[in-house]
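ugh ok fine here u go
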Amino acid sequence: MKRKNVAIIGSTGSIGINTLKVIDQFPEQFQVVALSAYNNCDLLIRQIKKYRPRYAAVSQQQYEKIKSRVDAKRCTVCLADQDLAMIATLPQVDVVILAMRGSAALAPFMAAVKAGKTVAPANKEALVVAGDLLIAEARRTGATIVPIDSEQSAIFQCLQGQNRGELKRVLLTASGGTLLRVSSSKFDRLTVEEILSHPRWKMGAKITVDSATLMNKGFEVIEAQKLFGLKANEIRVVVHPQAIIHSMVEFIDGSVLAQLASTDMRLPIQYALTYPQRNSVRLPALDLCAIQSLTFEEPDLKRFPLLALALEVAKKDGSLPAVLNAADEVAVEAFLNRKIKLTKIFDVVSKVVKKHRLVLKPNLQEVLEADQWAREETRKLI
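structure:
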């Protein structure tokens, strides 16, 4: 089996670190040819020394520090602000792991699909902002998109070998986040630290806030809509606190297929790396007898209005997802910086969404303009 050459964009975050753990398990199958980080300079240097990539990208602020500590003959140091698209299109790269957060991932994602690469996105923002354009380009070039997000990976796996014409809908599961059992009357009194204490996973600050408000699940609805060519009413969100079923698909005859697995991101990462094959996994097996029960409930859209807003945006589509994403990024940053309360995120984002003049089938320039407009409007409101 030929070794796959892997570029990891965002190698110092949790997805990047877990990707390297998977690669450590199968050194004969994978070769790291490029890594990128932004400011975690010390970890990136350790990764460069261990994996010996041909390219590494870092922020302008950390560029000289990295360059002075890396053998220039073995590793070319690049700028993350301008060279990620180049790294994603290197001729020797087979798989691009897109593990950086935010809509800035759009440029390397688009470059990779234009180059016909296999792209494994853990980033949902690029698909939310410009999913139609990315999928259309992937169809044109023959690029393969294998999602890493556990919910999208579950749907992807359940659809393998199935007749897509027989698909009725997707059941997208949600753990419920930090606030699932907290009274909405207390939301405004919760501190940033309390919101960032996710009951199950340690994630980045932004995604943890979005998980608490269920905005993250709203983004996943839009992401699934783009990835799998679905209408908004063909996706149903189901709260599943145990997070063992990562998502399900329902067919026209009433049959439902579910993907179950332990809550370890190394599983969908490994599947994306080895697709279309599967490797033997070196993780504890799922023990359903130990779990004993799996429960499900409807999401409370009154307590979590950002999810309701995202579902409405999914129905209208066009340029609105880009606006939703941009406004949320700015509003969440303001919350994390203690400029606004948690519930103010919805107030601000919903006002920006309502003010936007919808473009039904935006091109890339119109998407970027909508993104920039929404950021400016959100900052004004804050």
